[in-house]
Amino acid sequence: MTLKVLSVASEAVPLIKTGGLADVAGALPGAVADHDVAMTTLLPGYPSVLKALARARAVHQWDSLLGSPARLLSGKIGAKGAEHPLLVLDAPELFTRDGAPYSDVSGKDWSDNWRRFAALGRAAADIAGGAMIRRGKPQGFDLVHAHDWQAAMACAYLRFAPYGVARIPSVVTIHNMAFQGWFGREIFAQLGLPPKAWTMDGVEYHGGVGMLKAGLASADAVTTVSPTYAREIRSGTFGMGLEGLIIARGNAVSGILNGIDTDVWNPATDKALASTFTARTLERRMANKRALEADFDLDEDDGPLFIVVSRLTWQKGMDVLPEVLDHLVGIGGRLALLGSADPHIEHQLFEGAARHPGRIGIRIGYDEDLSHRMQGGGDAILVPSRFEPCGLTQLYGLAYGCIPVVSRTGGLADTVIDANPAALAAGCATGIQHDGVTYDALAAALTRTVDLYRQPEVWQKIQKNAMKCDFSWKASGKAYADLYRSLIA
Fold first, then answer.
1. φ/ψ (deg, to 5) at 240
2. How far apart are CA 489 and CA 484, in angstroms?
3. Using CA atoms, how far apart are residues 446 and 51, in angstroms rounded to an integer?
4. Each residue of 256-288: pLDDT tens digit?
5. How far apart are the C-alpha atoms of 280 and 53, rounded to whole Å?
6. What is the pLDDT of residues 352-394, one digit of tens each?
């Protein structure tokens, strides 16, 4: 039997992206399709999403969806020839705005984010329950899969205020526990939930409404984007105050590792690269390295070129990076960095670049093509995160032979095999891990990386091991499909 699953997310490639959530939501329909799961994606009607819709048709409307008129548009998402059904919540009062999906042009969060994303959850529950009518018959779904706090209220609405009488199971996926969607108690009366939802077992959290918490308490299953992160969030260090609830949910919580789109991230076919290559033609990477040096105005030499593609935040360990720049350059390394976020970290990085012209290049912002060129031309990618639910940049690095240098946490620990003596002797090392995010830990990891780089045969073996790793969506797609079927059963 083909399962009909509604995937609810605040972003999905190729229509809207601010982080890794979008990559997952965009890839998941294709990942589960081979396992007899027909997935439809529901997205908010941001201007960029509406603009990308071709020949969309209205399939439902609400006179008042949490106080705002809205309609539901039907279209397609995905690359040509691999498209999947798309539903878009067109609510101009909520989503037709200048700025980013969650904030205005100044970077300040929209004050009514609670209403915007509660409306997304309410719409998802209605749709799953059969609000859409086609040829006189309700068009419902077998299961709802909600992503992060922005969609988590769908699970609460299915539990406390379902549309219709059918019991529809749900899954909520935590992409980052740090973002929880907490709002004051005063909004509860406007959510359209019954009084029984205002409990510690419902949406109430520290005297307010916790949207992620509501999803975690209401969903039939909770997943994280790596097995290690699923274990880590049971602790106070990583649980961000919700560790008690995670522990209480017991075996309902599991980790399914993210995959990457191997059609998009493939060094053998990547049109963004100066020179495509495979594990058998690693010598062709040099053309990409030279092109990257030119991109960042770096000296051309044969020493290791480190890259960083990251949000410049404390979580990502970027506050420590400026401290080790002198050490990185001192041991013969260079750095090309692409990212933005914390102005103080940006300033420190530019100071480091000024001290080391030709050795450190900084680019503020994000550029998708440039990120591909960096993976194809860099020798090693630094990912020193303090916590990392899964991480995708290290997976791209593995695919491109750009060796990950990562902290031993979350998905980084699950995907990178440290080049310790045992792993080198066994011929299975794929990167470098370090414990903790401190100057000493990162400096030691950089030194170890340079030492390995200066052993060409060893380094090339690590590159080939990395490029042989299969982090496609094949295994993860089956894991999600199996989970869905277990909940339906």
1. 55, 40
2. 9
3. 45
4. 999 998 988 999 999 999 999 999 999 999 999
5. 41
6. 999 999 999 999 998 999 999 999 999 999 999 999 999 999 9
